[in-house]
Each structure stands twice: as C-alpha cells, then as structure tokens.
C-alpha cells in the first residue's frame, strides 16, 4: 500500500544504530527448563524434499464476512494494513498520520507540526495483517487479542488492551484466519544442530529469544538498509514461535518467507530443508528459561512543592495525552479518539487541552458526565490510576476497573505521574 512506503525511510535512521548494537553484542544463553524436552532426532544430511502445506478447509463466506465487520468495528485498519479491508483516511490512520507528521507533509500549520514532531516517536511501524492463516495458530491469536503482550521488543508500542471478549476475538480470527491449517505435524529435526544453524545464519541480528540462546551474527545476505531497518523493528521475540506458528509451515517460512507473505521484510537466507527442519525443532522444542518477572514500580509520594496546571500541562498533558484527548488543532484530524471514540470504545468527550476542559470531566459508559479526579477502585484519582495501570499492564497484570493509559504506548514516567497526582492533591491550582 503506497502510504506504507513512508515507513521504510522513516524507520531507517532510528533502527540502523540497533543493527550495529545487535552485531556487536552477544546475548547470554538462558538456563534450561526441565519442564521442556529437546528433540534430537535427525533424519541425516541428505537432500530432503520440501513438504507442501495446504489448508484442510476454508471457513464459510458468511462467517468470514461477519469477522470483517468486527475488524471494522474495532478499527484494526487504523494501525494495520489488512487484506480486503480498505485503508482509513489519513487523518484516522495512526501510522500514516505519524509518518506524515515526522516527514512534515501532514496538513497542519508549521508551528503545530513542529510541536507534534517533538513527541511523535510511537506507532511509526506496525505489521501488515496479511497471509496470517498459513502461519499462525488460531488458539494463539484468540488469546493474544484478549491479552496482548510485548511481542516485538524493538517496537516501542504494542497492541493495546481493548474491550475484546473471547467471542469478539474468535470473530476477528474468522476473518484473519479464513483457511484452517491446524493439526500440522512436527517434521523431524535436530534441535541441537538447529541452535547452531540459527546462530550461524544471523537470526539474532534482528530477533530476540527471551529465555533462549540466540546470538548476534551477520546476516549472510545483502538487504536494502531501509528494509533491514524495518525488519529489525518488526522482528518478533522467537520465544513465542512455538505457540504462534504452525510447525510444518514454519519450515517453509524459514526457507522462503516471501512465498507465504510477499510483503515480508524477513530475508530469504540460503539454507537446506534439513537446516530449516532443525531450526524449527530448536524454536519449538528447545529448553527455555522462564522470562524475568517484571513487577510494577512503587508509586512515588506526592511532592511537597507547589505544582500548578501550566507545569502539568506542559510536561504531561501536551506530551502524550493531547494526542488522543484533543486540542483545537485536531480539527485537522479526527478530534482525537479519546474524545470521539474509536477502536471499539465509546467517545469519552475528554479533552485535556485546557483547564476548563479537564474540569468538565468525561462521559462514562452510560453517557453521563463524571470527574476524571474521582476515586478509582484502587483508591487513586482516576486520572492517576489510569496512568499507573499502564505500568501494571506492561508488567503483565491489570488493574480492576481501570484501563491503562496511554493506550498501547509506553507508560508515562513515575515522575510525570507524581506531578499529576501532586497537582490533584493540592486542589488542582491554576
């Protein structure tokens, strides 16, 4: 899709430094987990014929169409390019809008663009949701949509936690996975040799593998710098391969990714069928240590000094919050999804652009006005609770009755949250 091509140029500069770091540094091996077993079966080094992967069935057209309507309901195309789903207008496309702001081509006053450019660091890269059915297991996708996690370590935003039920997730999966590839058999492979080959072929230059031994080494193929930069940014953590990927398809993917997904930035690295089977065995059956436990940080105490609205607005609200919770200049866009609604959420009518706007509060699920300073179920002022809840979500938890903000983006710093809480505790002085 033409507007996505902006991404290649925009991501390159930021990600080339990561390449240098990846090639220079070697990850330490993880500890073995006795709960996993390692496959050591090897079929020998003779030439092996590739196994053709075909779907066992295709979902009924009506079911797929119902899934498409769910895609539109949750506005997945505001962040992703999706086969068969039209692009949204630029002003509603998170990725395209961010790309154009950074490039200086977004239709807005120069001084407004300059202000936005200082804070636009997120959502400049998202994966295309194409050719998913041959690759991904339905069980994984349904779970991920309900409980998204940090799948791509080098992308600074992640899939937001939306109001998606299990039924919703299954309907979304109906459209994204219209062909059924389940119950694939694991092809014989030597996991130990697979570890040697995956490290020798440079996979660690782009991928991480939490809890596993993945080393950085040079990629044995030439790539355009912009393609390499984008590929590094979108490369997933290989820890999740065993839950995500169909095992037989994985072998084909390793040998020729573009044969399954033509738009992929993963390069075709020369390897034999045996290499691919061995690497697949390593990714699916190797011992993985448990990922490090991440705990939400301790909440900082309120400050003793005086904090006024101007400081909070400049250091917090204008930095991130305005992006979804509006300002006057957003007439160039959609008014901010935090005001007008979107992604399956009702419009909250919450503007953080002015003091009086904040004081007017927001609309709850019943459409009634409610204060953003009211006490949340955990006892914090709701505005503070929402920002702190994002730290909890990143740590793998959730706060009952509160959705973390900013949605899908890295948390506000504890110092920024402390500033807001101090201001509220002091009676919100102007």
Describe the structure.
It contains 16 helices and 4 strands. It has a two-stranded antiparallel ribbon with strand order 1-2. The protein is elongated. It is mainly α and 430 residues long. The protein folds into 2 domains: 1-291, no CATH class; 309-425, no CATH class.
Q: Secondary-structure blueprint of this entry?
A:
Blueprint: H1 6-24, E1 57-58, H2 61-73, H3 94-103, H4 110-117, H5 138-146, H6 166-176, E2 179-180, H7 191-200, H8 225-234, H9 241-244, H10 247-255, H11 273-285, H12 309-325, H13 337-340, H14 355-359, E3 362-363, E4 369-370, H15 382-394, H16 414-425
Antiparallel strand pairs: 1-2, 3-4
Helix pairs in contact: 1-8, 2-6, 5-6, 7-11, 10-11, 12-16, 15-16
Considering the chains and any ligands shown, give keywords for the structure.
single chain, 430 residues, mainly alpha, two-stranded antiparallel sheet, 16 helices, 2% strand, disordered N terminus
Summarize, please.
The protein is mainly alpha-helical and 430 residues long. Helix content is 39%, strand content 2%. The chain has 16 helices and four strands.
């Amino acid at each position: 899709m033409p507007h996505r091509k902006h991404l290649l140029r925009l991501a390159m500069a930021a990600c080339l430094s990561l390449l240098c770091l990846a090639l220079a540094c070697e990850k330490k091996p993880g500890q073995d987990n006795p709960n996993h077993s390692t496959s050591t079966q090897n079929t020998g080094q003779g030439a092996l014929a590739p196994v053709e992967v075909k779907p066992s069935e295709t979902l009924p057209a009506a079911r797929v169409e119902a899934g498409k309507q769910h895609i539109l309901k949750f506005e997945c195309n505001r962040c992703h390019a999706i086969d068969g789903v039209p692009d949204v207008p630029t002003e509603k496309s998170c990725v395209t809008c961010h790309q154009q702001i950074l490039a200086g081509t977004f239709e807005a006053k120069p001084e407004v663009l300059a202000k936005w450019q200082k804070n636009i660091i997120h959502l400049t890269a998202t994966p295309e949701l194409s050719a998913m059915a041959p690759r991904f297991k339905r069980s994984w996708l349904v779970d991920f949509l309900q409980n998204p996690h940090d799948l791509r370590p080098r992308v600074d935003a992640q899939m937001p936690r939306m109001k998606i039920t299990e039924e919703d997730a299954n309907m979304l999966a109906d459209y994204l996975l219209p062909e059924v590839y389940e119950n694939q058999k694991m092809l014989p492979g030597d996991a130990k040799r697979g570890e040697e080959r995956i490290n020798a072929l440079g996979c660690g230059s782009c991928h991480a593998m939490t809890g596993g031994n993945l080393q950085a080494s040079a990629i044995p193929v030439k790539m355009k710098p912009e393609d390499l930069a984008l590929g590094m940014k979108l490369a997933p953590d290989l820890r999740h391969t065993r839950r995500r990927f169909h095992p037989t398809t994985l072998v084909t993917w390793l040998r020729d990714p573009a044969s399954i997904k033509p738009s992929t930035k993963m390069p075709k690295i020369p390897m034999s069928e045996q290499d691919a089977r061995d690497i697949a065995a390593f990714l699916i059956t190797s011992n993985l240590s448990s990922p490090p436990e991440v705990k939400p940080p301790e909440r900082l105490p309120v400050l003793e000094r005086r904090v006024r609205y101007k400081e909070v607005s400049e250091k917090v609200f204008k930095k991130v919050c305005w992006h979804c919770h509006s300002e006057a200049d957003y007439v160039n866009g959609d008014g901010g999804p935090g005001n007008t609604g979107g992604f399956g959420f009702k419009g909250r009518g919450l503007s953080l652009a002015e003091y009086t706007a904040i004081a007017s509060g927001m609309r709850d699920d019943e459409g009634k006005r409610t204060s953003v300073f009211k006490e949340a179920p955990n006892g914090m002022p709701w505005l503070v609770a929402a920002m702190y809840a994002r730290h909890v979500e990143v740590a793998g938890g959730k706060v009952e009755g509160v959705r973390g903000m900013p949605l899908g983006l890295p948390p506000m710093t504890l110092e920024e949250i402390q500033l807001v809480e101090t201001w509220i505790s002091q009676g919100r002085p102007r």
